[in-house]
Amino acid sequence: MSWVFLRDLLSGVNKYSTGIGRIWVAVVFMFRLLVYVAAAENIWKREHDEFECNIKQPGCENVCFDHFFPVSHIRLWALQLIMVSTPSLLVVFHVAYRENREKHHNQKLYKNPGKIDGGLLRTYLISLILKTGLEIVFLVLFYKLYNGFKIPRLVKCDIKPCPNTVDCYISKPTEKMIFLYFLVATSCLCILLNLSELSYLIFKYSIKCYLKRHVKKQQ
């Protein structure tokens, strides 16, 4: 899978972000995207081939694997990375709209098209809310699909066509568990950063609006 588009997207967003937003971009790029590409993808590469059950009944192993892993951890992680990065496109598109509007009118309409104010501020806040919401949704999804943030060494399966309860063994469970905890920790860190940035922007522009009103009253 090519991650060039996601890398370019994060680089573009970084130009229009606040200081906290730049930390979020760094965390996503270094601790999520690079870890996924460099290490995690290889760990889950042959998870189906390395899933073994103590029976050779045709179809039993496949059915048990599908039951315990309805969606691969690594594919769900990839989907999470794409989905939580996508709302940032709203900011990039809004800045591009401002720049195109200036070109169309052939005059300077904004002091700085990339400055977070007015309509761009609302777009930025919406993108933060969406990113936070998606992070939470995926964490809940991980928890529900796999009955918690854990990977057992042994699972017992009694689904047809298995003739009886069989023992199935998951490959490299400890290594996968470490990466799963890392995934959850980085997701929680990103949620914290998004909420911090959201609070910072709301507080900053609330103070700014209050001061403007105060000056008008004084005048």
TrEMBL record:
It comes from the Eukaryota. It is a multi-pass membrane protein. It holds the Pfam family Connexin. InterPro entries: Connexin, Connexin_CCC, Connexin_CS, Connexin_N, Connexin_N_sf. The chain crosses the membrane at residues 21-39, 77-98, 119-143, 178-203. Its main location: other. Signal peptide: none annotated. GO terms for cellular component: connexin complex. Keywords: Cell junction, Cell membrane, Gap junction, Membrane, Transmembrane, Transmembrane helix. Gene3D superfamilies: Gap junction channel protein cysteine-rich domain. GO terms for biological process: cell-cell signaling. Residues 134-201 form the Connexin cysteine-rich domain. GO terms for molecular function: gap junction channel activity. Residues 42-75 form the Connexin N-terminal domain. It is found in: Cell junction, Gap junction; Cell membrane. A connexon is composed of a hexamer of connexins. Belongs to the connexin family. One gap junction consists of a cluster of closely packed pairs of transmembrane channels, the connexons, through which materials of low MW diffuse from one cell to a neighboring cell. This is Gap junction protein.
